[in-house]
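pasting input
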Amino acid sequence: MTWSEMQPVLSQACWDTLYMVGWSTVIAVVGGLPLGILLVLTDRGGLLQNVVVNKAIGQIVNIARSMPFIILMVALLTFTRWVTGTTIGREAAIVPLAVGSIPFFARLVEMSVREVDGGLVEAVQSMGGSTWKVVRSVLVPESLPSLISGATTTIIALIGYSAMAGTVGAGGLGDVAVRYGYQRFETGMMWITVAILAVAISLLQVVGDFAARSLHRRSGGSGALLLFRPLKGVFPGTAAAEAVEKS
Amino acid sequence: MITTSGLTKVYRSRGREVTALDGIDLHVREGEVYGVIGQSGAGKSSLIRCVNLLERPTSGTVTVAGQDLTALAGRGPRAGRELRRARSRIGMVFQHFNLLSSRTVQNNIELPLEILGTSGKERSRKALELLDLVGLADKAGSYPAQLSGGQKQRVGIARALAGDPKVLLSDEATSALDPETTRSVLQLLRDLNRQLGLTVLLITHEMDVVKSVCDSAALMERGRIVESGTVSELLATPGSELAAALFPVSGERTGADRTVLDVTFHGEAATQPVVSQLARTYNIDISILGAAIDTVGGLQVGRMRIELPGRYEDNVVPIGFLREQGLQIDVVGQEGQAPVLVKDGAK
């Protein structure tokens, strides 16, 4: 296969991956952020303490988190068809990607928000602030650096998931790697997709880290950026993980 | 200005009950600085949090500026609109400042005004005015992380004042600060109290804080108030633990056959040459074991520990003479001279 043959396939695949990951990230943030905050608020001693709701959300999140993505994808086929009218293509892939990443991001949000100093919440309460005001001016802004790290981790996980979605007809880089690299023994094509993914993920991590760290530095480094640490274990050996390890 | 009656707070966890507040009756007059002192675990923190209902008292009532807050609270754990509005009229300063690290100093001060729904222009005008008041006019654009502890607490105070409160609650506001900074922050609180007629309720474990700024004080132990009153009342109360702690004198008895007296001077009596008069009139030798003069709550007070030869029975007449001079005499280690404390409930 020559480069002129590969090029259109690859650019379409990149675009498809970007499309799937982009939309599912948006949905993951929109769905996961409130869910994660709700997990903190409804917990024992929280502002909206409600053990039943907390346990229910917690269970749903756990079940969704514990399910391997490839199985989640198959399990959701009927739901996907109901939402998009099809089970094939990038639009259809967004459904399981979003469903899988909402609870993932929600847990990360929960961890980040829990790190916010309870004294700040108390301060806003003492000024007569409502729970909504506490969320808006304390919980979210104070955990923002850590939330950005969480979003970065989620996007990287989504790129991984999207490759899996590729195997069941979603298109994208994963699909190209499997169809050309695995089924047709086009080793060159496979290495190129691997390289593209490695560069994309490293770049993403660097940008995410930079954004989180610059916000963190401004606020003087209070509040833990705990998402840097688990990352080492998740992506050992990548440039980004090494950069994190050095820092 | 602040009245609590029968305030009780019981914490329940895993079937165990801990009584943090056990029937607290507190009365803070308008315009005074009232200090509640006690060791950690005495219930001070619970008390101050019950005043603006950050913690719900188990029973009892809290009235601030004539408004019964406990009645506003409702039953649920969440604060309703009414209670939130009442809270916005009570400023609170915290031990660890509790400034939002994601906001500039100015935006931190504007936070309570946002909650009150003040317009943007008015908010920044007010914030800059308050920064000027606390002496940090040049720090408006800084982030809290760039400030020293004392500066952070000044911002905390400015923020607490943003809603024009009549009452300021101070939760160990100086406990995280060094002595020098503590003094300047206390001075600021005192000035604000005078300038704005602000009523201040502060809790602390440092006697120095009470000594330098408080008009009245209460001593808390195991969830109860064991002594309370204005500082001058306390100093005039024989055997008052708080007075002794506010103004300690030391010195050990040199022999068994001797009487040790603590003489407290305040007001007129401070200028009388009582010791030499005593020595001349009764022809006795007086040794001075310890003495100090200090300003407590804006009053000049002297305290001296003296030793007279002979037992208490032999010295009844000289002691009577000293009492006649308007001095307060505490006989140290004398049985049958049971100290009369201002018991709880006394205002």
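fyi Residues 3-246 of chain A form a domain with the MetI-like fold fold (CATH 1.10.3720.10).
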